[in-house]
Design goal:
alpha+beta; Tetrahydropterin Synthase, Chain A; rod-shaped; 276 residues; 54% helix
Length: 276
């Protein structure tokens, strides 16, 4: 740079602003290009106007429910007013960082822990709106800002992990109980259905047997209704025949038909059996 000083000129690179100081005091701005100056009395400071990244280290933020969380923020900014940036603030970048931290604390401080942890996109929007254009204050504009991470403190994280484990166990227990209840319900229903089916089958069988017996009786009665005296005499003969072959020695006969007993050939056999 001493060679340039001896030649009384300084080059301001592209996308930079050259700030001319005369006897240590800002006097004017130079754009990119070749510029002459008076050595010893003047100097030219180059200020980059390009976009720069900045990461704000983790710092504590307290939520509305007094939970301590760590916030990590990254942003991109560029210088919009080189004079304000260099001369009106001791450290414009640090001042900007403090402003960002303050707005973030204010935004998260109005939220409870669960809301804050699930609202990084919302916080990004609110934070960008709160910062706005810092040209008039620091000669800087924030082009992009992003909440990289909101992390609960170790003690809160441990408590959250315990709660999460307890919730999972509770859900598993409920699911198991509901499964067992459903199994019992299905088993009971199957048993009841089987019992009902068996009872219905037995009822149907009983009804079938009753219908068959009724049919038999009706058939017999219908046949007897059309039978003559010879049929009943034959039935009596058959009955006495069976009786004569049995070991019975007592016969009870209706008095109305006692006079007809002698007409039956089988009666003689019964009398002979009784005399023996």
């Amino acid at each position: 740079m001493r060679e340039n000083d001896m030649l009384f000129f300084r080059i301001v690179p592209q996308n930079n602003a050259g700030l001319v100081e005369t006897l240590g005091k800002y006097s004017r701005r130079k754009e990119a290009g070749l510029h002459f100056y008076i050595p010893f009395f003047q100097t030219i400071r180059n200020v980059s106007l390009a976009m720069r990244p900045l990461r704000l280290p983790d710092y504590s933020v307290i939520t509305a429910d007094n939970a301590d969380i760590k916030a990590s923020v990254t942003l991109n900014y560029h210088v919009t007013d080189a004079m304000k940036y260099m001369y009106e603030n001791t450290d414009s970048v640090e001042s900007m960082a403090q402003l960002v931290r303050g707005h973030l604390r204010d935004i998260i401080g109005r939220m409870e822990l669960n809301e804050a942890l699930g609202s990084t996109t919302k916080i990004n929007v609110q934070l960008a709106d709160a910062i706005g254009d810092l040209t008039n204050t620091y000669g800087i504009n924030v082009d992009r800002i992003n909440i990289d991470e909101l992390r609960p403190s170790t003690s809160i994280q441990e408590a959250m992990d315990k709660q999460l484990t307890a919730d999972r166990e509770r859900v598993a227990t409920i699911a198991k109980a509901e499964g067992q209840a459903r199994s019992i319900e299905l088993t009971t229903k199957a048993t009841n259905d089987a019992l009902m089916a068996t009872a219905k089958a037995e009822a149907n069988a009983t009804q079938t047997r009753a219908d068959a017996e009724r049919y038999r009786i009706d058939t017999v009665q219908a046949g007897l209704a059309g039978a003559d005296d010879k049929y009943f005499q034959n039935q009596s003969i058959n009955a006495f025949t069976t009786l004569s072959e049995s070991s019975a020695n007592l016969v009870v006969v209706d008095s109305k038909h006692i006079d007809q007993l002698g007409q039956l050939p089988i009666a003689g056999k019964l009398l002979e059996k009784g005399l023996k």
